């Protein structure tokens, strides 16, 4: 049976092929759409290219200017933040709402702290507040430069398989992520993403007003435990904290309509999609 999510993502990728750009000796991939409206920078986690946000991009591309990025094969959090500032500048986005998920959420926090004059709004999603101690936990405890890539990929595949066993209704999502980690994300890029957190800097002080900060989390996120979610909120003190009742670590794929609705709210756009009044998404 065909995987509907993979088919939809592939259709999007065919219509919006990833562009490549060299910034400070690092080659980024990116998808840029829209020519009017608020500006939105989308940063994926470890297991996604820029087009993993295809459902949000399709819903908003006529009402916002959007750049969704794919990480380069070198550099780390500090260098990437500088590159993203330059990428936005080259595309005429002087003020952006920056949303990052997981690894991307950590990078988004660093970007917002380093470039507050460019940050219209920060949305830190399914992410962490510190890299302290991460180097002692798998897969980061491995030698990420020398460990066989098959072993690193296998670790992700085991974790995804366990999630599919526990949540069979999300099998299509897991297959999509399996394809990403199985080779759609090239080896050098995957190693760079893992090293970015293992060797990542602590986050600088964030100098943004509370009304420009939001967080997103999922009650059933297997990678971000409740204590870490609380720590993210304690550090950022968001004006609004969105909480998916289910959606795992990838609610933007698993719950696309709700995710679009919260983005519309954050961007100041009319909310055209599913409301979260049914209790599936709570804002506090």
Automatic annotation (TrEMBL):
**Which SUPFAM superfamilies has this protein been placed in?**
alpha/beta-Hydrolases
Q: Which residues form the AB hydrolase-1 domain?
A: 40-261
Q: What terms describe the molecular function in GO for this protein?
A: hydrolase activity
Supply the name of the protein. Maspardin
Keywords from the UniProt entry: Cytoplasm, Hydrolase
Q: What's one Pfam family here?
A: Abhydrolase_6
| Gene3D superfamilies hit by this protein | alpha/beta hydrolase (3.40.50.1820)
Per UniProt, subcellular location reads as:
Cytoplasm
What InterPro entries does this protein's entry cite? Answer: AB_hydrolase_1, AB_hydrolase_fold, Maspardin
């Amino acid at each position: 049976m065909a995987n509907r999510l993979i088919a939809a993502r592939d259709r999007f990728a065919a219509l919006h092929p990833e562009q490549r750009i060299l910034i400070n000796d690092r080659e980024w991939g990116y998808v840029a759409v829209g020519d009017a409206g608020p500006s939105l920078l989308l940063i994926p986690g470890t297991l996604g290219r820029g087009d993993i946000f295809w459902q949000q991009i399709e819903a908003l591309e006529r009402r916002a200017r959007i750049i969704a990025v794919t990480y380069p094969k070198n550099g780390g959090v500090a260098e990437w933040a500088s590159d993203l500032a330059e990428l936005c500048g080259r595309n005429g986005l002087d003020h952006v709402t920056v949303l990052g998920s997981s690894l991307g959420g950590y990078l988004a926090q660093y970007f917002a702290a380093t470039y507050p004059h460019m940050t219209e709004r920060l949305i830190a999603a399914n992410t962490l507040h510190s890299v302290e101690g991460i180097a002692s936990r798998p897969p980061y405890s491995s030698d990420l430069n020398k460990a066989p890539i098959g072993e690193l990929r296998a670790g992700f595949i085991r974790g995804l398989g366990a999630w599919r066993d526990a949540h069979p209704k999300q099998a299509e999502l897991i297959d999509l992520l399996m394809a990403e980690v199985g080779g759609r994300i090239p080896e050098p890029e995957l190693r760079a993403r893992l090293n970015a957190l293992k060797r990542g800097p602590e986050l600088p002080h964030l100098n943004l007003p509370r009304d420009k900060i939001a967080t997103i989390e999922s009650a059933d996120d297997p990678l971000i435990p409740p204590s870490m979610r609380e720590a993210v909120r304690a550090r950022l003190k968001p004006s609004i904290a969105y909480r998916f009742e289910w959606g795992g670590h990838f609610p933007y794929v698993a719950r696309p309509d709700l995710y679009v609705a919260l983005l519309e709210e954050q961007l100041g756009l009319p909310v055209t999609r599913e409301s979260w009044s049914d209790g599936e998404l709570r804002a506090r």
